[in-house]
Each structure stands twice: as C-alpha cells, then as structure tokens.
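Board notes (copied after class):
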Amino acid sequence: MMTSEETVAFIDIGTNSIRLLVVRLNQNGSSTVLTEQKEVVRLGEGEFAHEELSPEAIGRAVTVCKKFVDLSLAFGATEFVAVATSATREARNADSFLELLQREANLEVSVVSGKEEARLIYRGVAAGIDLGIARALFIDIGGGSTEMVIGGQHDHITLESMKLGAIRLSNQFFHPDETGIVSRRKYAQMQQFVRNAIVHPLNRIRKVPYSRIVGSSGTIQNLAEIASRLYPGTSTAKVLRYEDLRLVIRTLCSLSLNERKKIPGINPDRADIIIGGAVILELLMEELGIREIEISPHGLREGLLMEHLSRIPGFPHAEKISVRRRSVVQLGRSCRIDEVHALVIVGLAAQLFDSSREAGLHQYSDQERNLLLYAAYLHDIGNFISFSDHHLHSSYIIRHAELLGFDQNEVAIMAEIARYHRKKPPRKKDQVFGLYDAVLQDMIRTLALFLRLAEHLDRTHAGLVRGARFEKGTDGLVALILEGRGDCTLEVWGVRSDMAAFRKVFRLGLTIEVVDGVGDILRGELPG
C-alpha cells in the first residue's frame, strides 16, 4: 500500500483531441477521479499532406496543455504522465513542438509508437469490460491512425496500427472549402483506398480467433450515438449494428456539412471528419463479417491510468483479477468500508448460498451467487454517507456508481440486495422492488435473505461465527449449523429475528444449532 495520497494527471495528446484525467491515488489501494476534460484542437489538421504540424495547430495544442497543467496543479497533481500519438510521431517538426510544450506548459511528453498506442488503448478498454476467459477484437479509430488488438482480459495476442484515421482520410479526400454532399463516386474512392490499406493487417487479424468485438474512440462512439437516435429499435449507444452503420453513412453522405451538424446525435465538431472515420469502420466490419460492435467509452487515457496503477503494490490493478472484482473493490475502498467485516460477510453469504443449494432449497446458479457476494462486500458502503439508514445509502451508491463489467440489470439487483440487508425485508409495495416481475422479486428476496442472515452472524464485527451451513431436516424444518467461538448469543438472536422471512422465502421452518468452531476468523473471497 502507499504511505500517503498522491494525485497524478494523465494527458493524451491525440490527432483530433487532447484529453485529461486527474486521479487521486488513495492509501488504501483505491483511486478517485477528480476531473476529466477534453478539448478538440485538430493537431493533425493539414499535417499528413505536408508532414508538419501547422503553427496554428501547435498554438492551440500548447494553449490547451497549459490550461490542463494549471487545472491539474489546482487539484494537487504532483506527477504528470503525458503521451502524444499519430500526428506528433509523424511530424518532422515534432521536436520543436515537444520543446515548446516543455517550455510553455512545463509538460514533458513521450511520443508513443503505433503499436504502443494500440497496447495502451487495449489496456484502457479491457479494464472496463468483463471478458472472463473470452478473447475480443478491439478497434479504435483515431484522427490519424486506427488500432486493432486481439486480447483477453489481461493479455493481448496481436497488435496492429494502421495509418488510417478520420482526419487523415478527410484531409486526403476533401478540400477545406468542400462542404457539400459526398457523391457516390467520392465515397467509393474512399472505400477502395481503405480496402487497399487494410489488406495485410486483416490477414494477420483473421489468424487469431475471438468471440467479441469492442469499439472505442470518439468516432465510433459518435456513430453509435447517431444510429441509436435514428434507428432506436436496432442499435443503441452501446451496440452498433453494421446495417444501421451503412444507413447512417448513406444519410451523412446525402447532407451538406451544415445539414450534417444538425443530424440527431452527432457531435457538431466531428461533422467534417465523421464520414472519414465511418468508411474505415464500415470496411473493417464488412471485411471481417462483423454484424455488430460493442461500444466502450474508454481508451488510451484510461490505459495510461491502468499502466500506472499496475505498477503500485497493493492496488487491485496490480493483480490479474476480473474487471468486476476490481471495480467492486475500488468502489468499496473509495468509500472506506470496513473491509475485514465485508469479507467476513462475503464468506458467510457464500456458505449460506452454497449449503442451501446443496440442501435443495434453491436452484440459483453461480451467476446469482456472484451478484450476492459483490453486494455482500458493498452492503455497508452507505456508511460513507451516514450510518442512519445506511442500507438505503448503500443501494443508492451501488446503483449510481460506475461499476465496470456489470450491466444495468446486474447493478440494479446488487443495489436491491444491499438495500434489504437490514430493517424490513422486501415488500411488493416498495417503490423499486414492486416494479420487478415475480421471478426477479423471488431471486432478490432469496439473495437478500442470505445477506441478512450473514449480517446477523457478524453482528458484533468480532468474527465469532467461523462457519455456517444449512442442512435439510425432517418435519418441514431446516437446520442452520453455526461454528462459533465464544458467546454467540447476539448472533443467534439476530438470526431468530428473521425466521419469519426464512419461512416466507422457503416455506420451511428454521432451527439453529451452535457447535464449537475452529480456525481463524472467516475471510471470504470475491469472485474473479
């Protein structure tokens, strides 16, 4: 663990935009985002024809970087990690630009290669999705280059970086004063150019199997947003269908620049380069037979953060654990939960879930088990706001936190489980619980009961109960066998208070038996 807090600023100087991420690294192995900023500077505007950054573009970039440095210092940043990508690495006057950044903005910038850019993008995007044992193809279309990576949750297999980008292609095929519609002939020329450029990289990509496709970058995100607005029945802001992308392109090409800026969902700042990015994505999806692509909001900037955190012992990012586990631990530590108690509850909840399944009380799968254990770890997170009604605060925090690797339904279920870990059990008249169908209500009621019982079993936070298991008895009864050390009277009383809830869920009565326990205080493990 770190001995003191530290604030680090990460700056990504791209061909189209400059992005800032300021993060406070906490002593307990968590991190807190203090600010995120993005400014469109068009550093690569006109560069790829002359191989030089223009004085105007350099001026815009230096101004923005100076502003970002000042903002970071205001947040207490003591370390800066800054990289520049395609536009800078290909410019003949890159050295003078970097020297100006050092002199005017007091910012030391590293220029990364295409493959290193691809690797950092992969790190940032993979950190935000739950791949499990699957492999994914990652596609990122920047202003000057396009990166493609095949990798799993923790390691990449192949890296590709191509000199194709939204600004580069737009500059090549459109004059600055060309603001009309895009003819079929012009678009066909762009398609042929891209086809020629991607032949060899795609031949290498096809040799490695993958089962998911994830797209990142502002271009892909914006195309997905447009499709979700024009074709909400088939595409969303998180998933873009190939057929909808083709329809979007057809619409974009039929409009003048001014009309393009008004199309629903578009970022007006991208209206002049969006077609250049769209043709790249269209051809990649077409050639690889991709029917739809998942959209990620993360990228190189987040990759810089992951790279930095992975080098710090004690941070979950330094371990090869799942995205879900890492994001849950990060949230819990950020809100300063009692982690020892949280892991005791995780262990007890797991034992109750597993033994009741073995006893035939339910047939829920490991998927539901995992959601229970994550909710168990976070059940007291609401104490960060106030102990009073902290179960309600816990539910709110979980529901509104950015828990990477989970979908909205899973987050909602975890929030409800935590909501009912104390006070009254779920009731149909409850505002949120009452909205769910009967099947989901039964699942939440069951999982919340396991959490309630686990919480009773560590009521004193002393770890007196070293183990708990259900055993199916006779005469309509179930025995709860507790392995205890010392006086477990309060823990037993707590369980007795929920006997009626147990009978309502399982239609069976409950008996409690305490036996001598052995071993250390129980410490559960989160999935992944």
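Comment from the instructor: The chain has a mean pLDDT of 93. The longest helix spans residues 184-205.
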